[in-house]
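debug: dumping io for the single-chain case to check the tokenizer round-trip. Nothing else runs in this session.
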Amino acid sequence: MPYRTGREAFMQGVRALLPLSPGVVPFGLLTGVMAINLGLSPGTTMGMTLLFYSGSAQMVALQLLHTGVVPLAIVVTALVINLRFIMYSASLAPHLHHLPRRWTWPLSYMLSDQSYALSSLKLSSGELGQFAHHYYAGTAIAMWLTWQLSVLAGVYLGASIPDTWSLSFAIPLSFLALLVPGIRSAASLGAASVGGLLAVFAVDMPYNLGLVTASIGGVMAALLIERFRKSPLREAQPHDVEREPQ
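debug: decoded output
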């Protein structure tokens, strides 16, 4: 049901994001710890976090820095990882393009996997009403603050976090929490399955190319499944044709 005020929609967005925070905090802690262990200063680490605002790209960039990869390869890898935000933006644009720049610019900067997953379906259904952008802003700002504070905590508290906590295990769990509810069709199931398998088999590829390979493979699988489902031969199956009377 549509919200009556912008404040109500904003707070509902914040509340919707909170259950996802436990999966984001360990990710941020690990990022902060890794940056400091690589010799980055706290100021540089937080500057990188503010500039990137993409946990996966930042983590990969830090790993590549650690292995001594040339800067151009690091930039290209980060750009490829963040290509998904182009698709996110294209999906959200029809619902938010009418807003003034004072809204669209900060909301574009704070776009994340979590805020998109929470907002996209609600925006498409129209259930948020005229304050839909306030709901999205609630999820986006809450996610941005959670990430920034988590990385900051990792920078200053990382050395005191024991390895037995296995914080790295929380990273795939946080993305699984976003993935599973989004599997609503054969195409999305195929994309998740093929992408997951490719990611496992290509895990040892250099420069983290396994991630790129898995992403492309998942997209191609979804496109092929959708084309098969919509093909004329598929639509005219023998069991769909009425049998002539004997």
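debug: round-trip ok. The chain has two domains: 6-162, 183-230.
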